[in-house]
Write a structure and sequence with these properties.
The structure holds two protein chains of two kinds. By secondary structure, chain A is an alpha/beta fold. Helix content of chain A is about 45%, strand content about 20%. In chain A, helix 2 (about 40-50) runs antiparallel to helix 4 and helix 10 (about 205-220) packs across helix 11. The longest helix of chain A is centred in the first third of the chain and has 17 residues, at about 20-35. Chain B is α/β, with parallel strands linked by helices. Chain B has a domain at about 10-145 and about 210-250: Aldolase class I (TIM Barrel, Alpha-Beta Barrel), CATH 3.20.20.70. Helices cover about 45% and strands about 15% of the residues of chain B. Chain B has helices at about 25-35, 55-70, 75-85, 95-105, 105-115, 135-140, 155-160, 185-195, 210-220, 225-235, 240-255; strands at about 15-20, 45, 90-95, 120, 145-150, 165-170, 200-205, 220-225. Chain B has an eight-stranded parallel barrel with strand order 1-2-3-4-5-6-7-8, surrounded by seven helices. In chain B, strand 5, helix 7 and strand 6 (about 165-170) form a beta-alpha-beta unit. Chain B is globular and about 45 Å long. The chains are: A alpha/beta, B alpha/beta. The interface of A and B includes residues 14 and 181 of A.
């Protein structure tokens, strides 16, 4: 889907300081070389299978299906991966690539902390130095993940600028990369930023849809009718969609974080409330004011609390191949609790946005229809915040 | 002929950077006039952006101060219009691509022409993406300034050949901010630039003292100073213009 100039339709590109241009060109050349390299792919598959625990299960949620009374619901269990989320897929790929490029240090941004933990994990495994930038607000919301990153040997830099959330962590990681390039790879965590990141991250995450397709073929002998995933930058969603893009009968639905609602300022739903812009290295849709100042977005979910969306999603939206729907904090929290009680699976609050939308549409669908929901991560990290949301103060 | 060339006709150029609206627009106006009266050759006017990814903490904070005081692109255009009644030296805007794009590139660039802006510096618009705005800046005679970095290497000749106005040579890796030492091999970079263009080149990032400015100007055509001036605004607020005037005089004297 990527054009030769790193565009998805009008979206994407490389809007970054000159200082970083040779670094992204070097990365693109290395990736073009290794992506078809047998040895590289063999090593990556071994890491995926033996270290991260792939393939992840495609689980038929029998009770959920029965209670909702409509379409058959399958859960793609990315929460069962090592480190508890889909983030590890991309990180193992990028860390291996960085290692082949002779880099000895990984830097990363993180929102909920899952990408930070995954990067710290890969750095520990591969003997690399690791620095993770995390918004100060998020270090409070996700204290457990901060501890985990430190335990894994990474240093965590709280970012105090701006809103102290994911966008500020990305800005700070970009600044750090311009300071130190020769030994450092910026392990970007989502399908965003300058080319070639949206393509690289998508390719490493596309294992999700590849597996869904094979697993569902085995279980049901057919394609799903709908694939649903949550979207912040959009890496688990593009991973879940990618191998179905050509299968036009499959509806692809991305769930954005509406926060307190798309009619309030406390939202992070980019497709619903943003417009075309240029930020963090890419042209895409962004939440912004009339003068192009990036909006201070909000969501209960630190991982979806980002004012933009990856360029390939912006393109899939433009050509109407995928649909993007807003899901509020309240709906996500209900789904978080509901899936926990109904199936004994505590999803990440990010993934709960996808569950919430499936709960809305499944009852009205016929029983022979199939919905696949990607459970992008596990919800342990969110328990304290959800308890707080419900007015209960727990100490971890 | 580009008006920007005039900035380099008075010996080595001294180019101060001022974030518009920090702490308010009347201070910006007074600061620009003080800088011009004390020998500035070109003024780089910053339009604040919420998330300035190429800036260090000093200029980041200036952007936030300006935005939280309600400065907007339209108000900055009015300020420049007023300034143009008193000031003749070249002005360039320094901002981020989204500020131009979101306003509407044609609307933004034609306004630049109307109010007397001579060039545009967009640190997040590298050579590969300049087609985003170049057709329009060319149409309105606004120079789209190219930056060359310590990591540009094989890209220098390509960038220099198509450059306009002047070349902004980034002295060091990293973001803007005062540095005690600049270690990049700038003479070799400038040698390649000279082989590919006759445009003047000025060095920026990290310069704060007259000694540093002189050292940089000795190997180029001028010095650009941002964070050191913004620090005066941070420290003295609305009283800063007087101190900025003194500082500019000291810096320009070192370059004469």
């Amino acid at each position: 889907m990527t054009n030769s100039d790193g565009r998805f339709g009008i979206h994407g590109g490389q809007y970054i300081p000159e200082t970083l241009m040779n670094a992204v060109i070097e990365l693109e050349e290395a990736y073009e070389h290794y992506k078809n390299d047998t040895e590289f792919n063999k090593e990556l598959t071994e890491l995926f299978n033996d270290y991260a625990g792939r393939p992840s299960r495609l689980y038929f949620a029998k009770k959920l299906t029965r209670e909702l009374g409509g379409a058959k619901i399958y859960l793609k269990r990315e929460d069962l991966n090592h480190t508890g989320a889909h983030k590890i897929n991309n990180v193992l790929g990028q860390a291996l690539l960085a290692k082949k490029m002779g880099k000895t240090r990984l830097i990363a941004e993180t929102g909920a902390g899952q990408h930070g933990v995954a990067t710290a994990t890969a750095a520990a495994l591969m003997g690399m130095e690791c620095v993770v930038f995390m918004g100060e607000e998020d270090t409070k919301r996700q204290a457990l993940n901060v501890y985990k990153m430190k335990l894994l040997g990474a240093s965590v830099e709280p970012v105090k600028t701006g809103t102290g959330t994911l966008k500020d962590a990305v800005s700070e990681a970009m600044r750090e990369w311009t300071k130190r390039i020769s030994d450092t790879h910026y392990c970007l965590g989502s399908v965003m930023g300058p080319h070639p990141f949206p393509t690289i991250v998508r390719d490493f995450q596309s294992v999700i849809s590849k597996e869904i397709k094979e697993q569902l073929k085995e279980k049901e002998g057919k394609l799903p009718d709908i694939v649903i995933a949550c979207v912040g930058g959009g890496s688990n969603a593009i991973g879940s969609f990618y191998h179905f893009i050509e299968d036009e009968s499959v509806r692809l639905i991305g769930c954005e974080a509406a926060g307190r609602g798309v009619d309030t300022f406390e939202t992070a739903a980019t497709i619903a409330t943003g417009r075309l812009g240029i930020f963090h290295g890419m042209k895409s849709y962004f939440c912004q004011d009339e003068f192009g100042q990036i909006a201070p977005v909000y969501s209960i979910s630190a991982g979806l609390d980002y004012p933009g969306i990856g360029p390939e999603h912006a393109y899939l939206h433009d050509i109407k191949r995928a649909e993007y729907v807003p899901v509020t904090d309240g709906e996500a929290v209900n789904a978080f609790e509901y899936l926990s009680r109904c199936e004994g699976i505590i999803p990440a609050i990010e993934s709960a946005h996808a569950v919430a939308h499936a709960m809305k549409i499944a009852p009205d669908m016929e029983r022979d229809k199939i919905i696949v929901i990607t459970i992008s991560g596990r919800g342990d990290k969110d328990c304290a915040a959800i308890a707080r949301y419900r007015g209960e103060d727990i100490h971890e | 002929m580009s008006n920007i060339k005039k900035a380099f006709e008075n010996g080595k150029a001294f180019i101060p950077f001022i974030t518009c609206g920090d702490p308010d627009l009347s201070t910006t106006k007074a600061a620009v006039i003080a800088a011009v009266e004390n020998g500035a050759d070109l003024i780089e006017l910053g339009i604040p952006f919420s998330d300035p990814t190429a800036e260090g903490p000093v200029i980041q904070n200036a952007n936030l101060r300006a935005l939280s005081n309600g400065v907007t692109t339209d108000r900055i255009f009015s300020l420049v219009k007023e300034l143009r009644e008193e000031v003749k030296i070249p002005f360039v805007f320094m901002t981020y691509s989204n500020v131009v794009f979101s306003y509407g590139a044609r609307r933004f660039i034609s306004s630049c022409k109307d109010i007397g802006i001579d060039g545009l510096i967009l640190p997040d618009l590298p050579f590969e993406e300049k087609g985003e705005f170049l057709p329009i800046t060319s149409e309105y005679g606004i120079d789209l300034i190219s930056l060359i970095a310590p990591t540009s290497e094989n890209r220098i000749s390509m960038i220099a050949k198509e450059a306009e106005g002047f070349i902004y040579v980034v002295s060091s890796l990293g973001v803007t901010g005062v540095r005690s030492e600049i270690t990049t091999d700038l003479p070799s970079i400038i040698k390649v630039i000279r082989e590919n263009t006759s445009l003047p080149c000025a060095i920026g990032f990290g310069i704060s003292t007259p000694e540093q400015a002189k050292k940089m100007a000795d190997i180029s055509d001028g010095a650009i100073v941002g964070s050191a001036i913004i620090k005066l605004l941070e420290k003295y607020g609305t009283d800063a213009p007087e101190y900025i005037g003194e500082y500019v005089k000291k810096m320009k004297d070192a370059l004469r």
